[in-house]
Design the sequence.
């Protein structure tokens, strides 16, 4: 199998660690942030831009690609990499979170999920076996098991049922997955209940997947609950397998996740807030659409060396936002993704040089919420 993972260094003062993950589309170092390209595109930027900013792996979504343009068409194109002209790593989510977000439009059973498309209302059925077939046709380097993500808040009984079904589906996914150059990751559920997280981790790790994701967090729970569950979960997962925290991308959450042993992150946050005129900076979020920046000719982030910060001012970008020009989305998105990718590079360097604790302290000294 072409997928391998090796821990190359552990931090002495925290659970942070360095790793190296190898796929058939390249090798990348962890911890790493994965830009989200839900529909085979990271919104507002090109694959060439992603390469330029140093992205090693991106995420696409099985649910959306299944509905449009369809897995068969992507397979005919030569797989997702060729279809979207992206030469590096791709991870495909199973679409479970999106399906379970379709309140009133889906019905769940142990066999799978019947749901209505959010596009045209058409009726569909997805089972673990069908999802594996779709993900193998898409041809990503890493595929995720089909899981049930319990909402927040939910009852203990609801979360327990989701854990049981996630384990049942994980076994079916593993048994039906037969793509030798695609790694299949299991997903840990359990909401904010410690004993359910322990149960889920025990059952999923027993299936011996090459990697494990922590799902069902960053869905509305308080941050202290997310950090508490991460404190617990990283102790329950194998040390020699990658750990992926799903749907988390705020700078402070990346720092806290790394401190708790997480290797991989993804989130739509940097691209979504960009479309609303908000940029990440080393001093916190900057809402560039605000009137105070109308004549501000500084860069979005004066400590950033991305191509946007080298060439464009806050005043100009605010003008683009107010004029509803598409270029505003591209410039802020590029900067936000660069910011997170560069931040992860800085974190890796800090771990390598035994100064992650210093990085952690300095981050909170300058980043304002």
Sequence:
């Amino acid at each position: 199998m072409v997928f391998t993972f090796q821990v190359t260094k552990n931090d002495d003062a925290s659970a942070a660690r360095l790793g190296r993950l190898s796929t058939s589309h390249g090798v990348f170092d962890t911890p790493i942030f994965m830009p989200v390209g839900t529909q085979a595109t990271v919104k507002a930027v090109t694959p060439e831009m992603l390469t330029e900013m140093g992205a090693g792996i991106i995420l696409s979504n099985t649910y959306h690609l299944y509905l449009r343009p369809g897995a068969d068409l992507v397979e005919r194109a030569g797989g997702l990499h060729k279809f979207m002209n992206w030469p590096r790593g791709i991870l495909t989510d199973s679409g479970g979170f999106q399906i379970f977000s379709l309140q009133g439009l889906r019905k769940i059973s142990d066999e799978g999920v019947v749901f209505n498309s959010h596009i045209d209302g058409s009726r569909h059925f997805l089972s673990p076996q069908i999802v594996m077939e779709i993900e193998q046709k898409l041809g990503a380097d890493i595929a995720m098991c089909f899981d049930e993500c319990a909402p927040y808040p939910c009852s203990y009984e609801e979360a327990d049922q989701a854990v049981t079904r996630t384990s049942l589906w994980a076994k079916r996914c593993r048994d039906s997955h037969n793509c030798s150059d695609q790694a299949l990751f299991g997903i840990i559920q359990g909401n904010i209940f410690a004993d359910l997280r322990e149960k889920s981790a025990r059952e999923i790790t027993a299936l011996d997947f090459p990697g494990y994701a922590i799902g069902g967090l960053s869905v509305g729970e308080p941050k202290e609950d997310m950090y508490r569950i991460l404190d617990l979960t990283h102790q329950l997962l194998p040390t020699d397998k990658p750990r992926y925290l799903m749907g988390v991308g705020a700078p402070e959450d990346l720092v806290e996740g790394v401190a708790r042993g997480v290797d991989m992150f993804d989130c739509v946050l940097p691209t979504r807030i960009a479309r609303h005129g908000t940029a990440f900076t080393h001093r916190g979020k900057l809402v560039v659409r605000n009137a105070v920046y109308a004549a501000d000719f500084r860069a979005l982030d004066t400590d950033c060396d991305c191509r946007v910060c080298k060439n464009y001012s806050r005043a100009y970008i605010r003008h683009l936002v107010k004029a509803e020009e598409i270029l505003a989305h591209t410039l802020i998105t590029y900067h936000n993704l660069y910011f997170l990718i560069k931040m992860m590079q800085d974190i890796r360097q800090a771990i390598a040089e035994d100064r992650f604790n210093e990085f952690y302290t300095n981050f909170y000294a300058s980043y304002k919420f």
Q: What stands out?
A: The first helix runs from residue 47 to 53. The chain has a mean pLDDT of 97.
